[in-house]
Specification:
Blueprint lengths: L6 E5 L2 E5 L4 E6 L5 E6 L4 H4 L8 H22 L10 H10 L3 H31 L7 H24 L2 H21 L6 H5 L9 H16 L7 H28 L3 H17 L5 H15 L6 E2 H13 L6 H13 L3 H6 L4 E2 L1 H15 L4 H5 L1 E4 L2 E4 L11 H10 L8 E5 L5 H9 L4 E6 L2 H13 L6 E5 L4 H6 L3 E6 L14 H4 L15 H13 E10 L5 H10 L3 E7 L5 E7 L7
Parallel strand pairs: 9-10, 9-12, 10-11, 12-13
Antiparallel strand pairs: 1-2, 2-3, 3-4, 5-6, 7-8, 13-15, 14-15
Helix pairs in contact: 2-4, 2-9, 4-5, 4-9, 5-8, 6-11, 8-9, 8-10, 12-13, 12-15, 13-15, 17-18
Length: 590
């Protein structure tokens, strides 16, 4: 086992480690990211050589640890504070002390903590033990009674606070700190699976320090006699630096020794850690590892393709994503620019830490149910790779049925003018323009994001010569321009408003509401488009819609009422209504 002088402290949702390079505090934020704050902190005993004298140094280390501990707890708490208006007293303090406000608050907290500790662990045990003096109990007996009461108070206090949910998590991070230090001391790579197998009970723990103070105080106070309660209390306070100094030297020795005598002395403190440490989960261990790596200046451990895929799959499976392995594979392939076959055949390849970081950022997005195609920025449709992003509907396979039906009505040698209405990503119009060379397609949408995405896809697939984007509220702009089309094809919003809340999380949480909601009955856009299409369709023109699974007859009826003929409802591969297509048979003057 390697010799190292790493120490640590659990904080709110995180761990502080003090190592050879400095002090690092890692906090797990609400969004799952780990924030690390690093400081080059020189221990007080190294900063001032005179304070490094054995026995004397213990008291100064204790004070320094208390100050740092309060600072770290305040720092970690700042990540989770809710925005609230400061009280009048806080405003007054800030106006009075300015930049020193935080220092004043910290000093007040520390003084209060010291006073409460003295009252609880010194005054109360001494006062109760003094009662036994009237029963002629010898001084050594009084010291033992006093120490016993102090231990009972300490155990009761620790047991009580360990039942609190927030303290239980703090004690889990305490356990993660110990396990990580043990793993590092053993010389094993700092990986979650390695850290997990080590004990959460460490001899250099502050819990040991608290218990050993009780043990040392019995010995030291045995030489002080027993005066009045006040004399005894004052003497106890005066001797606190001596007791803490001796205890500090003892715990340093325990950390370096492995003989039977050392194990006997450390045993009670280790048992006490059953209360103050709890078994951490993997996420908490990961935080402790990150903190120690930064504190010791260690390079972050690289992971293999297989390890990353396993970790990503585990994370996504934890939130019930059915395609967890596939998604993890697609995301890693996206980050390193490789296909699935490469990942399968190069599972032992080490991935750079930058790529690892970027990969887990994408995993967190998918964990929050962001659609995989938004994360990747691409979507396959009709054999074409389209650019997509939040703000446009992700093209579905069902929509291909609509495109295929329209393509059946276009001969290769026909020069037709086509309108892709409510174009979104431009998928429908782009597919038609790609597979029919002589057509001219206008993609129409009302919002900025569809305009950006459609134009990018037109350029990407080199279709500028036969495609144009028109920003319009449905057909308003083209009616004003007097434009006419041979075919209008549309996948308008058609979901009933009341049904949107029942959609899958990745749909209702990320895809644009404007591309989903078809009003109360889901037919609002169909009515408007059918009415206006009469004004812009050429004679023998075609109107083709994608529809919801239960809207076939309703949309068909609306079209027939406006004079469309040969209106047909087509089904998808699942046997559900998916497309309605109709024709204007009367040749009109255009």
């Amino acid at each position: 086992m390697k010799k190292c002088d790493v120490g640590g402290q659990a904080v709110i949702e995180g761990v502080m480690m003090r190592g050879s390079k400095g002090m690092a505090t890692a906090i797990r934020k609400d969004n799952g990211e780990i924030d690390v704050k690093f400081e080059k902190v020189v221990p007080i005993t190294k900063k001032y050589k005179i304070l490094n004298i054995p026995i004397i140094r213990g008291a100064f280390v204790l004070i320094d640890s208390m100050v740092q501990g309060i600072k770290l707890i305040n720092y970690s708490a700042s990540f989770f504070e809710e925005d609230s208006e400061p009280s009048k007293f806080e405003k007054w303090l800030k106006s009075k002390f300015g930049e020193r406000f935080d220092d004043i608050i910290m000093a007040g907290v520390m003084i209060f903590a010291i006073i409460m500790s003295i009252l609880l662990f010194v005054a109360l045990p001494t006062g109760i033990a003094s009662i036994f003096k009237w029963f002629n109990v010898p001084n050594i007996g009084l010291n033992i009674i006093e120490a016993t009461i102090r231990i009972i108070i300490l155990l009761g206090y620790m047991t009580l606070v360990s039942k609190m949910e927030d303290m239980y998590r703090l004690f889990q991070y305490h356990g993660a700190e110990h396990k990580t230090i043990f793993c590092y001391e053993a010389g094993e790579p700092l990986k979650v699976e390695n850290v997990r197998k080590y004990s959460r009970f460490h001899p250099r723990c502050g819990t040991n320090f608290l218990f050993l103070i009780m043990f040392v105080s019995i010995i030291i106070f045995a030489f002080t006699g027993w005066g009045t309660f006040l004399e005894r209390l004052v003497l106890r306070i005066i001797l606190i630096p001596v007791v803490s100094g001796v205890t500090y030297e003892l715990i340093k020795w325990l950390g370096k020794s492995n003989n039977k005598f050392a194990k006997i002395i450390a045993a009670p403190g280790l048992k006490l850690q059953k209360i103050t440490t709890k078994e951490p989960d993997d996420d908490q261990i990961e935080v402790a590892i990150k903190s120690l790596q930064v504190a010791e200046g260690l390079p972050e451990e690289k992971m293999t393709i297989l390890e990353l895929l396993d970790e990503g799959t585990k994370t996504l499976s934890s939130v019930d994503i059915d395609t967890a392995r596939l998604d993890a594979t697609l995301l890693l392939g996206h980050i390193i620019g490789r296909d699935r076959l490469y990942l399968l055949t190069h599972s032992d390849e080490k991935i750079t830490n930058d790529n690892k970081k970027n990969y887990f950022e994408l995993i967190e997005k998918r964990k929050e149910k962001m659609p995989i195609k938004y994360i990747l920025g691409t979507c396959e449709f009709m054999g074409l790779e389209l650019f997509v992003e939040e703000g446009v509907l992700i093209p579905r396979g069902d929509t291909e049925i609509l495109v295929e039906e329209v393509l059946k009505n276009i001969n290769d040698n026909e020069s037709l003018e086509i309108c892709d209405l409510c174009s979104g990503s431009g998928a429908i119009g782009i597919a038609i323009a790609n597979y029919r060379n002589n057509v001219k397609v206008d993609s129409i949408d009302y919002f900025e994001k569809p305009e950006k995405v459609t134009k990018k896809n037109i350029e990407k697939l080199k279709l500028k010569d036969r495609m144009t984007f028109i920003k319009s509220d449905l057909l308003t702009e083209v009616i004003n321009q007097g434009k006419k089309y041979d075919i209008i094809v549309s996948n308008p919003p058609y979901i009933k408003e009341e049904e949107i809340s029942d959609l899958m999380e990745d749909v209702k949480g990320y895809e644009p509401h404007t591309a989903l909601s078809g009003g109360l009955d889901g037919l609002v856009f169909y009515r408007k488009i059918i009415d206006d299409s009469i004004l812009v369709l050429k004679g023998k023109g075609i109107l083709a819609f994608e529809i919801g699974y239960d809207q076939g007859e309703d949309v068909k009826k609306l079209m027939i009422e406006k004079g469309f003929k040969n209106v047909n409802v087509l089904k998808d591969l699942a046997g559900l209504d998916r497309v309605v297509i109709g024709y204007l048979p009367i040749l009109k003057k255009d």
